Amino acid sequence: MTRATSLFAISVASLLALTACVSPDRGANNNDFKKTTVGAAIGAGVGAVAGLISGGDSAERKQNAVKGALIGAAGGAVTGNILDRQAAALKQSLGNDRVTITNMGDRLIVTLPQDILFASGSATLRSDLQSDLIAVANNLQAYPESTVQVVGHTDSTGEAAFNQTLSNSRANSVVNVLAGAGVPRSRLQGIGRGEDQPVASNLTEEGKAQNRRVEIVILPTS
Predict the structure, then answer these.
(1) Which region, left, alpha or beta, applies to residue 27 given φ > 0 means left and ψ of -120 to 50 means alpha?
(2) pLDDT (tens digit per residue) in 175-185
(3) How many CB atoms lie within 10 A of CB 124?
């Protein structure tokens, strides 16, 4: 693939991502618009790359990149819009303002701090927090076209091997509650990351508290 072809594909993808998402409804929520735009941009990029590697000469690949970007942008915009609605419904149903919901445009990430779920060093869920997980499970059943990764994280205190095992056990504890509330296990995957993916410094107590978390990653399948 030449540099010119690569730049062409990137330009086409960016252009189509922006134009595919323009809406005449100026009263629409600006954040929703941004997330839908992100979804379209991701779809356009994937479509353009698929077109470029589809074979043929340079002109054919450029044509395929345009077609792929157009199709991908449209599909990505739809996904982004669905995630906007799912995130809004989930936020409304949760009763805990310490649970955060982040719409990445192609996925939702529901972050639950460890200390609202588990005691230190434990993988046993607090009973009073199960209602929040059941609310998540109900939301997942209302939006069934997705797979779900439940990812456990720890801070760096203690042995790395222990933290890895603990994070995996905590992730699977959450999976068990979601499954028990009706989410098919075929949609669920428990993953332990231990101390390997911090979001803040482990040199401060505040940073460690941010790193101790469980993330529920909702990945659309269509």
Answers:
(1) alpha
(2) 999 999 999 99
(3) 11
- Find the mean pLDDT for residues 112-136: 91
Closest CA to 217 of 76, 103, 99, 108: 108
Cα(42)–Cα(68) distance, rounded to whole angstroms? 12
**Which residue type is seen at 113?**
P
Judged by DSSP in three states, 152 sits in strand
Task: In whole angstroms, give the CA distance from residue 193 to residue 211.
Answer: 11
The answer to whether residue 55 scores a pLDDT higher than 70 is no
pLDDT of 149 reads 98
Looking at residue 39, what is its pLDDT? 47
State the alpha helices, DSSP H only, in 94-159: 130-142
**CA 138, CA 134: separation in Å to the nearest integer?**
6
Angle ∠(125,128,130) on CA atoms, nearest 5:
60
Residue type, 15: L
Q: Report the pLDDT value the prediction gives residue 127, as an integer from 0 to 100.
A: 84
As given in the structure block, the two tokens for residue 56 are: 């043929």
